Amino acid sequence: MIEVRGLRKTFHRPDEVVAVDDVGFRCAPGEIVGLLGPNGAGKTTTLRILATLLSPDKGAATVAGHDVAAEPDQVRRKIGYLSASTGLYPRLTARETLRYFAELHQVSDADARVDALMARFEIGPFAHVRCDRLSTGMKQKVSIARAIVHDPPVLIFDEPTLGLDVLVAQTLLAFIEERRAAGRTVLFSTHVMREAERLCDRIAIIHRGRILAEDTLEALRAQTGETDLEQVFVKLVEQAGE
Length: 242
Prior knowledge:
By secondary structure, this protein is α/β, with parallel strands linked by helices. The protein contains nine helices and ten strands. The strands form two sheets. Strands 6-7-8-3-9-10 form a six-stranded mixed sheet, sandwiched between helices. The protein has a four-stranded antiparallel sheet with strand order 2-1-4-5, covered by helices on one side. A hairpin with a 3-residue loop joins strand 1 (2-12) and strand 2. The longest helix has 16 residues, at 166-181.
């Protein structure tokens, strides 16, 4: 459902910074792939390209069979994108937000879909509260529901548990597992290794814009001779000569 080949993105700040350098990987239906790396490794840039928020300088990527550069509208219909900085309209209530995005995506029986999501994420108690008055955890629940209100086949989450308390984070991780069981493709970035160990079928480790390895956790452990995922990451960086 996601295929990335030779992706490159350079920024000028004013010095040239290569944020993504010849990145390639794939994600299949019913699979969770984790994109792991430290801050500044290129995770967010890669995901923003896949979500059609940035254009690549080189390379190609397809999501659900559509090219992200040539067919951005089709890609957006097929994805649910969530980042730690995803905003909500402050004057809309939680329920109004979900209803608005359901209509935007032309969801049939939008009210039933909104009701189901409100129940799944326990939004009911604050359904009629304006988003600018919600706590961080409440906002994230609404943001998650908003991102998947159209039941997309591909989910792209950028550090979705950043800043969340334990209970809300666990709700989100359980939801990601449910989506895999439903046959959805999930790509998410994180620097929290325990999340990757719990969720991921495969892991792509990115550092300084380049993919150092992409495989199952078991295979990465065998490759490096390490069992702890943090040590796996350190060993791969060392092997790359960084």
